[in-house]
Amino acid sequence: MSTTSGAGALNYRNGTQRSSLRTQSSTSTSSGGQKSSVKSKSVLRKSSPAALGGGGSKSGSGGDAGVPGRVRVAVRLRPRNGEELIADADFADCVELQPELKRLKLRKNNWDTDTFEFDEVLTEYASQKRVYEVVAKPVVEGVLDGYNGTIMAYGQTGTGKTYTLGQLGEEDVADRGIMVRAMEDILAEVSLETDSISVSYLQLYMETVQDLLDPSNDNIAIVEDPKNGDVSLPGATLVEIRDQQSFLELLQLGEAHRFAANTKLNTESSRSHAILMVNVRRSLKTRDGLSSESNGNSHMTKSLKPPVVRKGKLVVVDLAGSERINKSGSEGHTLEEAKSINLSLSALGKCINALAENSSHVPFRDSKLTRLLRDSFGGTARTSLVITIGPSPRHRGETTSTIMFGQRAMKVENMVKLKEEFDYKSLSRRLEVQLDNLIEENERQQKAFVDEIERITVEAHNQISEAEKRYANALEDEKQRYQNDYMESIKKLEENWSKNQKKLAAERLALGEKNGLDITSNGNRSIAPALEEVSELKKLLQKEAQSKMAAEEEVNRLKHQLTEFKKVEASGNSEIMRLHKMLENETQQKEKLEGEIATLHSQLLQLSLTADETRRNLEQHGSEKTSSARDSLMSQLRLPQIQDPGNAEKPPVARLFEQVGLQKILSLLEAEDADVRIHAVKVVANLAAEEANQQQIVEAGGLTSLLMLLKNTEDETIHRVAAGAIANLAMNETNQELIMDQGGIGLLSSTAANAEDPQTLRMVAGAIANLCGNDKLQTKLRSEGGIAALLGMVRCGHPDVLAQVARGIANFAKCESRASTQGTKRGKSLLIEDGALSWIVQNAKTETAAIRRHIELALCHLAQHEGNAKEMVKEGAIWELVRISRDCSREDIRSLAHRTLTSSPTFLTELRRLRVDIR
Ligand code: ADP
Ligand code: MG
């Protein structure tokens, strides 16, 4: 018995191929005279990519097709129960399991068995843990990685579906079923700060969906998203789960409501389907988000990548018992009720049969169950089915049909796809916060700067007035001192003088008394003391002169000091000037910052524009699918970016256009940053989609820039969007000539030669197709390789591309036929010379209406010119014309074909020769 887990679980991953056992041969082994054959012819598939979940940066809802992953099927045998141990004591089990070979032998009678292979064979001894690991764990891991997952149990009532899925294991944790274990794994893996888990729990009975978490909600509508076909139940209660206990309580509550609802409806739970839906939303933390905060400027405009969220949905389905309800209604149901009870289950069987046989129609819409499980079978989810059987030989019939159901389910192939998308909302929130921070920081700096200037100015003023005061004081002091000195000297001189006078008088008096002589006559005698006086006076005079000099020196020194002070004052002024300059610089810096804020704003708009565009594209895809009738010539001409001109509200691009200005947007086409370039070209493309803007774009040099982008970049997205814009501009005759003059055909041809993406090719083909419709450009277009480029693109095979190629050919043929009617064209068609005719003939019967109609028109135009008739007979185009003249759904084309056939002598001769009557 294989009760250990591990290796089995690894092999069990959806999307990986276990090829060791899945041999195609139906080996026959015989033992003991018993005959058995391996019935399972299933499932050796084309090799599929091994690893899933590392899918990196795909943007989920886009066009990626996913990875093949087959529905995995395990069979689980319930041990004999008490009654069976007694009643079947003398009988062998109706099945024999070979878990190591992953085979199940079903006893047909005593000597004959059928052998079946499954992805996993779980015996009556398999533990709940092992069942979880092989059946559910890989699916749960997928859900955590962002893939949808389904786990479903199918089997007769009483064989252990609910035990396998819904057992709570309250008494013995070893008994816990898949729902409980799955939530344990999910809670262990997610981080509740960034991720969220929400749960709904529903019952489907008699085509009515009831909410097991809110019994009053007993008729929930299933809503289908018209864009992508996703189904949802907006009316169902959604409960956020943050811990295991609340989940267990929720399951118990659901079970109680289920019991009550079924009692009310007078049925058993085995007649209804229980559906648990677990939504896991995870934010991807890595990538260069906006972590570096607002410490500056330009680097942050680059990090505009929005955060990524992955949304995986786990659906666990406990189906109603697969046994047939007695048709007579003996269980208390009328026949109508019985049919209704079985409707969903039998619809599921029909869908699985259709998918297993690769049938073109799968009747998903027949029942609510199949609508809800659309993604689980043949969709994008990883799906794991466990079929439960009992051992009793009395139920061999039911057991056999359960096994056959499982075998068919093994053939269903899903395309497992990552559910990842950009979280534009949170990016926008983050950018807004950042913008606020930047503005705040800028204001703060501004204020600090103004304060600083004020402080420095006040300080300088204080210093200057202090210096002036000091200088004035010093000057006053000096002056005072010299005045004092001077006054003192004068006083001394006066004293001396009066002293001398007195002395002189006394001496004269003494002399007169002694000699009685006249003073004047005796003057010679008093000469000596007088001389002394004079020399003393001279000395005094000299001293006076010296102190005068000293005073002058002092004045000079003070003057010098004054000039020094003046200098200090001047340098204070220049400091103020410097500060003024700094103020100016800061103002400029601020303006630059504001510019960047504006750029951020515009990029924000561009982002929302990108989101719009994606949405629009999705919408268009959706509507293309639903209405194939809507392919008028107009919608062929107008490429996908084009907006509805009747739209009253201005689209974000137009707003951006007004705010940022065309020149600025065009200059961004040459930006260094690839992201900016891509955004810019998208904006230009959207503008070019509006006829009103086209002339302005061309005049501003936009057309030249777009053509240069084809030449100078390698980026496929840029090529696609630029080509789309050129295609729109190429709808106008003047622009067509400009495109040709600027070497447009050569650029478009080389873009077409290098492109892989069908959408790029579609845009290029659309652009050339528009040019093909210009009578004046025919020869030039062909000689520069336009027709060859168109024909080269059919290699891609995508119907949208082929439709554009066919349109181009039809346009060209129409111009040619016009020219030949006017007599300006002679000889064979250039299209035929370039080998277009064989492609035209090959595709004339294509299923795709859009392609066929252009080809039919092209054939009619070519046939109008007798110069082409011979070649058309040779290539078999004449038969297509005959067919068109008979079967074409459009009257005008039908009669055009008829007219051309009957007016060409060559055609008439050929038809007569082959006795074809076209009347
Ligand atoms: P179903 O949901 O298919 O009608 P249940 O899960 O209710 O079946 O199982 C019927 C009975 O069998 C229950 O009493 C359950 O406990 C028991 N049972 C089912 N599978 C097992 C198993 N593998 N081991 C032990 N008991 C089981
Ligand atoms: Mg049950």
From TrEMBL:
Residues where ATP binds: 155-162
Region listing for Disordered, in residue ranges: 1-68
Keyword Protein transport: no
Keywords for this protein: ATP-binding, Coiled coil, Cytoplasm, Cytoskeleton, Microtubule, Motor protein, Nucleotide-binding, Repeat
Residue span, Kinesin motor domain: 70-412
Subcellular location: Cytoplasm, Cytoskeleton
Keyword Nucleotide-binding: yes
ARM repeats: from-to residues: 660-702, 701-744
Main location: cytoplasm
Ranges in a coiled coil: 428-492, 534-603
PROSITE patterns per UniProt: ARM_REPEAT, KINESIN_MOTOR_1, KINESIN_MOTOR_2
Record's GO cellular component terms: mitotic spindle; spindle microtubule
Region forming the signal peptide: none
Similarity-based family: Belongs to the TRAFAC class myosin-kinesin ATPase superfamily. Kinesin family. Ungrouped subfamily.
Protein name (record): Kinesin-like protein
Organism listed in the record: Arabidopsis suecica
